[in-house]
Amino acid sequence: MKSFGVHLFFLLFLAAIASVTVQAFTGTYGINYGRIANNILSPDDVVTLLRAAKIKNVRIYDFDQSVLKAFSGTGLELVVGLPNENLRDVSANADHAMNWVKDNVLAYLPDTHIRGIAIGNEVLGSSDEFSGFLLGAVKNVYNALDKLKLSHLVQITTAHSQAVFADSFPPSSCVFKDNVVQYMKPLLEFFSQIGSPFCLNAYPFLAYMSNKDQIDINYALFLPTKGADDPKTKLHYDNLLDAQIDAAYAALEDAGYGKMEVIVTETGWASHGDENEAAATANNARTYNYNLRKRLAKMKGTPLRPKSVLKVYVFAIFNENLKPGPTSERNYGLFKPDGSISYDIGFHGFKSSSADSSLLSLKEIRASSWSGSYSIILTMATALLLVL
């Protein structure tokens, strides 16, 4: 009970001084930490790997305690996931949502920088199995955060696949599918009220694989090409990812939410695939991810939203050997399971042969993780606790 009181006091203090809407993604380049594998590095080693790569923004797909503990004191900013199979219970029961937030968010703050909660993943647009529970789960989790004075610290989102769109080319023609609108519009209305972005999983690799006759692979890989023009907006696109993002903006505009920010919560390119996945090569994956990093480093927006700096979470840290589906699904990792690089885009792999060096690095990381306003806030909150 005492520990809970300390956490609650600290967070009340943070909420009292918060003056802006929370943003779960504070940089431009993040990464997804998928763990559907039995041969990948421990969470502690993953922290070392990410810090060496200077990747600060991380998304996970669940609320695994070993990960939340490993990220404690590191300064890495984490979005945790409420899996689809939990949506029904959380939607139906506000107390269940409150307990989930207390156990999996509040209990780890402030040491683990949990900046966001992703409610489900790609719920809308395909099967309707969980569609009816999404909005209820979103509202119950947000209300729990709000009651705990965490809503200014932790942002609520959900990620959508491109299956929610009826048309995506040209970008200006994009609208939400008729069977999605009944769920999407009230969700967008709530997100607009609480300041949440529209999160999109966008894969030029998948679009190219489905339309190889119509799409130039150079256009998908950010390589020189004649590009494509949108006849309605007269805008020119030199890469497919920008066009996919602007299609989402067009759908939002059509639905009445044109001011909502679009964040790419997944994108990547497979480095290996089945016989019918000829584009899934290490060279193409390296080209896509290297050029994506260069694109994000320019700190610019898309043709339709040039002033909205693009934010992207790459998929993913590791190749995941237990993922179902085609071979490509198991080969999106920037790193191999042992932490060595899958291909060179400027990151250095984990040096597993030097255990002592790795441990020292991890200690240094944890010792120097608090920075800027977080360190100031922590000092002030600690001082207040000491005088109570």
UniProtKB/TrEMBL annotation:
Gene: LOC107953692
Pfam family, one: Glyco_hydro_17
PANTHER family: GLUCAN ENDO-1,3-BETA-GLUCOSIDASE BG1-RELATED-RELATED (PTHR32227)
Reactions it catalyzes: Hydrolysis of (1->3)-beta-D-glucosidic linkages in (1->3)-beta-D-glucans
Signal peptide: 1-24
Stated name of the protein: glucan endo-1,3-beta-D-glucosidase
EC number: 3.2.1.39
Keywords: Glycosidase, Hydrolase, Signal
GO MF assignments: glucan endo-1,3-beta-D-glucosidase activity
Keyword Transmembrane helix: no
Biological processes annotated in GO: carbohydrate metabolic process
Enzyme class: hydrolase
GO cellular component assignments: plasma membrane
Record bears the keyword Transmembrane: no
Family: Belongs to the glycosyl hydrolase 17 family.
